[in-house]
Design a protein that fits this description.
By secondary structure, the chain is of the alpha+beta class. About 30% of the residues lie in helices and about 45% in strands.
């Protein structure tokens, strides 16, 4: 399953990328999204390429039917890796919920117009479980879409610090 959405920021790309490439932003954002037990697993930044890998626990914001609770659980431990290339203004997010056979990936890009920046999210969700994989993909996509308004609002607020 694939889907996309955008978020717009009232600052230029350089300022927005500064935020996206700050480990403190990632912690504050995940906490705003309801993550628990956040910890930074790895981080690198050479001035052009940024990478952060984090782990946290999260509850789904979408109501889960019984079969989904068996696979995902009430609370899921997630490992998430985010990368940005400042020169191309492109990135990726890899989300790995513990025990989920499949992948959740997002290509990101940042474009500037008139002093504001727009971040595009291109998601791909794939669950490899016979019979219920498609239904789980729908639930995961619903959860991601449901968190977008909270993500956008929190990011806007955090951007005030940059």
């Amino acid at each position: 399953m694939q889907f996309s959405y955008k978020q717009t920021f009232a600052k230029d790309n350089a300022t927005v990328l500064k935020m996206f490439c700050d480990p403190a932003y990632h912690k504050a954002l995940q906490e705003a999204l309801g993550a628990m037990n956040f910890r930074q697993v790895d981080h690198s930044d050479d001035g052009t390429r940024f990478m952060i890998k984090v782990s946290y626990e999260v509850k789904s914001s979408a109501p889960l039917p019984g079969f989904a609770k068996k696979v995902l659980g009430e609370t899921t431990t997630v490992t998430q890796t985010e990368r940005w290339d400042r020169s191309t203004k492109k990135g990726e997010v890899i989300v790995e919920p513990k025990g989920l056979p499949g992948k959740i990936r997002c290509s990101t890009s940042l474009a500037e117009a008139g002093g504001s920046s727009t971040k595009t999210f291109d998601w791909e969700v794939s669950v490899k479980i016979p019979l219920v994989g498609g239904k789980l993909e729908d639930l995961i996509a619903e959860d991601i879409r449901g968190k977008n308004p909270v993500d956008a609002k929190a990011s806007q607020k955090l951007l005030e610090n940059y």
